[in-house]
Amino acid sequence: MEMEKRISLELRNKTPAEVAELVVDNCRSSDGEVEGLSDDYKELEFLSMVNVGLTSLAKLPSLPKLLKLEISDNMIVGGLDQLSEKCPNLTYLNLSGNKIKELSTVKPLKNLKNLKSLDLYSCEITTLEDYRESVFELLPQVTFLDGYDHEDNEVPDSEADDDDHEGLDSEADDDDEHPAGPTRDGDDDEDDEGSEGQ
């Protein structure tokens, strides 16, 4: 589905000015540019355009309230200077899986004064020697790079989306319980199956 058509569907009878979140993942940009968005989306705080075929952010409209931008799995090679002009309040930016190779490409992000979390997983830049140290030095305002801070501490739950981490936490709790007493748990399971069968 084309990006412009998908965006109009996602509006769901709202005007662009009423939309705070917009997710148009896996649709198609016909020319590698952002399509169907305009300056009317002035209340937008979260925008996700994952795997839509973007090669450029030149046509990104001015989104002054945008805090989170997900543009992973596209073909963006540069032009990140557009972000500080058009989305000056970004706190979270996911560029994973793009064609970013050089530190100079991410340098314009230093103008995003509120940027706290930056993801560059699966970009060629991550293969550079001293990649993490260099990015933290270049972008001193960034607290988390690829989900970890300077000391390799993971993003705390309060910083990340609650939904994502609640599921992970409960799975971790389950895993913690099983190793504690595998024999006991195994017996309980067999008893339960036996009683259900009767």
> What is the quaternary state of this protein?
single chain
Secondary-structure element order, N to C: HEEEHEHEHEHH
CATH superfamily of the largest domain: Ribonuclease Inhibitor
CATH fold category name of the largest domain = Leucine-rich repeat, LRR (right-handed beta-alpha superhelix)
Name of the top-level CATH class of the largest domain: Alpha Beta
Secondary-structure arrangement, i.e. CATH architecture of the largest domain: Alpha-Beta Horseshoe
Largest sheet: 6 strands, parallel
What would you call the shape? globular
Rg: 21 Å
Structural class: alpha/beta
- The low-confidence parts are 162-198
Helix content: 25-40%
Terminal Cα span: 53 Å
Instruction: State the strand order across the main sheet.
Output: 1-2-3-4-5-6
Number of β-strand runs: 6
Tell me, rounded to a whole number, the average pLDDT.
Answer: 86
Number of domains: 2
**Count of separate DSSP helical elements:** 6
Give an account of the 3D structure:
With 198 residues, the chain is of the alpha/beta class. The chain has two domains: 3-155, Alpha-Beta Horseshoe (Leucine-rich repeat, LRR (right-handed beta-alpha superhelix)); 161-198. The protein has six helices and six strands. It has helices at 3-10, 81-86, 103-106, 131-138, 162-180, 182-197, and strands at residues 21-23, 46-48, 68-70, 92-94, 117-119, 144-145. It has a six-stranded parallel β-sheet with strand order 1-2-3-4-5-6, with helices on one face. It holds the Pfam family LRR_9. Belongs to the ANP32 family.
